[in-house]
Write a structure and sequence with these properties.
single chain, alpha+beta, Aldehyde Ferredoxin Oxidoreductase Protein, subunit A, domain 3, six-stranded mixed sheet, 25 helices, 17 strands, globular
């Protein structure tokens, strides 16, 4: 049961073949993010450009993806990021990942590039590269509908929108009309390969090595989730319920992180989403959390529409960070990003960066076409469209992402991110461990690679002072290693807030594979550490050094001026030094030969 199946498709030559991923690789890296990163490392020179046809695009599931394990619906898109130049690994839920496994495949590796637009159709053992010229330029919903009509009503589609086609570095891969592999610009790599979509219909089902033991582990985990506060809270309000709490803590990023308190937070909070716009909950495969919000906006003119969202990160990205307190506009922006295939965080962060640059006179008004200021909801909608289509000067530079935009206009220090990827919806000056997490994240700034807010504000599993550097490096390494294992398994990170990854999840993984690959929490952490160091090796080979584990000067030297986090900055260097020591890396952030031998990576 340890062996896994890779479908390798070369769009340059048209060659399609199945391969077996070795048991050793599965044992060491489990699946998903772990095996996918190993496959990338083994099939690329990390120094190549992300848009080079030699950059593989890998779709990776985990061993519990598609099973009845709670929230077992995740898949990863792994490649070299065109946004950061680092390793990219973007996570999505829904039903596409399970469908791929039901078709008999654990991984799909796309190599080369087509000369004309194509899509890949997978129906069990039948795999075809089909013409997609009629789909090029279509929004995501239309693409899914047309492919479904041409193939089968139950086909699952992962696709790009116009943003990916136009190589916007903020582009994502969309599936199931609202789920997104969002960060790091993976949709642009798909666009560079002229691959519009991968459509999957699988009817083979899955084999579980020890079904009775697996079922017992699943039921124990489900019981914890059903009774847990995270599940209940997310079911009621979704992630949007976080808005007011973060505002109270003074760490809700506002106006491109110039502030941590948003005056209109109550107007864009989860309860308002539920009361005014939500029509129903939505969940992914084998999920009882159902954190998704299906919404509809009527009576708001150009902001009317229907679709999925917004999540908390979206309310930040196209809302508070841009100073926009009109919830109808924020929801419309969410719909647009889903249709155009853009990451709501990165697309919004680029616009927030432009707003500050424009207000300070660094972008000529002629480059935009109008006076741009924070809080302009109409401008938000226009600039999202311009970004996806690279329309005009401002559209082109927005599509390059916030860092390149700020650099072009002479002020890269006004981009709020690390490794050219924007921060998430937590100002690290109110949770300094998040500053270290952003700086050291292998895929660029990310809250899902080490959510120190859990220990700094939620007290899970311990409670730390959010404003001191004490113990942050230690707990971050544990959180990063744990998250790497969770991402390798194929389960949703949300489930681990109420369910133990070191006990419940490891048992599920062991029983589905039929071997105790992670017999203890310590072994789980070791596998996660191996994955983390492999990703670091990729980044080192791509040219990243200690200098890239950094934060903007605003975060390290400009204290917040109001709210509970008033007066604080992030003292990064002491945490970074301790972090490197705990990781077993040298002073420049390179894993030592001893550490590589310990992890079997030498």
């Amino acid at each position: 049961m340890l062996a896994a199946t890779l479908l390798r498709v070369n769009l340059s030559t048209g060659q399609i073949r199945k391969e077996t991923v070795s048991e050793t690789i599965v044992r060491n890296f489990i699946g998903g993010r772990g095996v996918g990163s190993k496959l990338l490392m083994d099939n690329i020179d990390p120094a190549v450009d992300a848009f080079d046809p030699r950059n593989p695009l890998i779709f990776a599931t985990g061993p519990v993806t598609g099973t009845y394990a709670p929230t077992g619906g995740r898949y990863m898109v792994i490649t070299k990021s065109p946004l950061t130049g680092a390793i990219a690994c973007s996570n999505s839920g829904g039903y596409w990942g399970p469908a791929l496994r039901f078709a008999g495949y654990d991984y799909v590796m796309i190599e080369g590039a087509a000369k004309e637009p194509v899509y890949l159709y997978i129906h069990n053992d039948k795999v075809e590269i089909r013409d997609a010229k009629h789909l090029w330029g279509k929004i995501v919903d239309d693409t899914e509908n047309i492919i479904r009509e041409a193939t089968h009503p139950e086909v699952r589609v992962a696709s790009i929108g116009p943003a990916g086609e136009n190589l916007a570095r903020t582009a994502c891969v969309m599936n199931d009309k609202g789920r997104a592999a969002g960060r790091s610009g993976v949709g642009a790599v798909m666009g560079a390969k002229k691959l519009k979509a991968i459509a999957v219909l699988g009817t083979k089902g899955l084999k579980i090595a020890h079904p009775e033991a697996f079922t017992r582990a699943v039921l124990r985990g489900r019981d914890k989730l059903v009774k847990g506060p995270t599940t209940q809270g997310l079911n009621m309000l979704g992630t949007a319920g976080t808005v007011s709490f973060m505002n109270q803590l003074g760490m809700l990023p506002t106006n491109n992180f110039q502030m941590g308190v948003f005056a209109h937070a109550a107007a864009v909070d989860g309860p308002v989403v539920k009361k005014e716009y939500m029509t129903r909950n939505r969940g992914c495969h084998s999920c009882m959390i159902h954190c998704g919000r299906v919404t509809k906006v009527t009576g708001h003119g150009r902001f009317d529409g229907k679709g999925e969202g917004p999540e908390y990160e979206t309310i930040f990205g196209v809302g508070t960070d841009c100073g926009v307190g009109d919830l109808a506009a924020v929801i419309k922006a969410n719909y647009l990003c889903n249709e155009l295939g853009m990451d709501t965080l990165e697309a919004g962060i680029a616009i927030a960066t432009a707003m500050e640059l424009a207000e300070k006179g660094y972008i000529p008004e002629s480059d935009i076409g109008f006076k741009l200021t924070f809080g302009d909801a109409n401008a938000l909608i226009e600039l999202l469209e311009a970004q996806a289509h690279r329309k005009g000067v401002i559209g082109h530079w927005l599509a390059e992402g916030g860092y390149r935009l700020a650099e072009h206009y002479g002020h890269p220090e006004l981009f709020m991110g690390s490794k050219k990827q924007g921060f998430a919806a937590y100002d690290p000056r109110g949770s300094v461990g998040m500053g270290l997490a952003y700086a050291t994240s292998n895929r660029g700034a990310c809250h899902l690679r080490g959510y120190t807010v859990s220990v700094e504000h939620f007290g899970n599993p311990v409670k730390l002072d959010p404003f001191t550097t004490k113990d942050k490096a230690y707990w971050l390494t544990i959180l990063q290693n744990t998250t790497a294992f969770v991402d390798a398994s194929g389960i949703c990170l949300f489930s681990t807030f109420d369910m133990s990854p070191g006990e419940d999840l490891t048992e599920m993984v062991n029983e589905v594979l039929g071997e105790r690959v992670a017999g203890s929490p310590e072994e789980m952490l070791k596998i996660g550490e191996r994955i983390w160091n492999l990703e670091r090796l990729f980044n080192n080979a791509a040219g990243f050094t200690r200098a890239d584990d950094s934060l903007p000067p605003r975060i390290t030297s400009e204290p917040l001026t109001e709210g509970m986090s008033k007066g604080h900055v992030v003292d990064l260097e002491p945490m970074l030094n301790e972090y490197y020591q705990l990781r077993g890396w040298d002073s420049q952030g390179r894993p030592t030969p001893e550490k590589l031998r310990e992890l079997g990576l030498a």
